[in-house]
């Protein structure tokens, strides 16, 4: 592993490249409030966060990434449009792989831009592509927004769509819900017996746990409403499966998704955004006929990505984590903006891995 001084020097080099692209250097506190952040990260990050308690400030966590605190900073004080860069340590437990570092340096680049979001996607990706080109990495791309649009267009209840949206980043749970809502999964005997009762709360045992009677009654009502709703159609499930199965070069993936959109009009807008992004990438000299696209890519990563996602991998070193990752997180700015929002996209590079793979300093 490269020495800390070499990593710091490489981080400074990378940050200078982003500053040359107009990014303002910013810093965030190593210690962050846990309550808000834990709800924004995916299961993987939540499970590996270092969380502690402070008598005055409540639960705190060691910074697991920079994007969320940078968005918080921008939504409170930032002008528009804006570009930021940063570097510093992040912290994540590695309980299943002692070989991976639990403290490492990230360098990032973020763009907050209303006018041309697809062009901003292309700019961020092209910068990372050019910076990492000497390492011969494999670039992977995807678009969470296409699946989100497909879920939004399903002919089913709002409650079901909300559950599916919430679990898009948990593929197994998402699949289990699709099987349940489409009637593929057998209703558990205990649930069927509960729903058959005229008054499930009558004669119930004393309550144990944090849920009160009103919350339990509300859950029973929701289960009954769901049981009364018709199943998601087989054709819609097949279209969802077709979207999730798209894994081709970007040009071919676009054509395949356009074909699917004929039968699932709800994804037209998301597919059009993909087309504009690919056009913007081509204008920047990227060969989209050699760029991989996977519709399900990024679903196990941080939950704040809701559009374009990307990652760079060393195929000769499958033991390594991604060298760089990034994506679009418009919904995060809305969640943290207290009524304001702005399209935003960015990414991070790990300078220690760049050096370990022979990157220049």
TrEMBL record:
GO MF terms, alphabetically ordered: glycosyltransferase activity; histidine-tRNA ligase activity
Xref: SUPFAM superfamilies: Class II aaRS and biotin synthetases
GO biological process, one term: histidyl-tRNA aminoacylation
Residue ranges of every copy of the Aminoacyl-transfer RNA synthetases class-II family profile domain listed in the record: 14-346
InterPro entries in alphabetical order: aa-tRNA-synth_II, aa-tRNA-synth_II/BPL/LPL, HisRS-like_core, HisRS/HisZ
Record-listed L-histidine binding positions: 65-67, 92, 106, 110, 304-305
Keywords: Glycosyltransferase, Transferase
GO cellular component terms listed in the entry, alphabetical order: cytoplasm
NCBIfam families: PRK12295.1-5
Assembly and binders: Homodimer.
Matching PANTHER family: HISTIDINE--TRNA LIGASE, MITOCHONDRIAL-RELATED, HISTIDYL-TRNA SYNTHETASE
Protein name: Histidine--tRNA ligase
Lineage, opening ranks: Bacteria, Pseudomonadati, Pseudomonadota, Alphaproteobacteria, Rhodobacterales
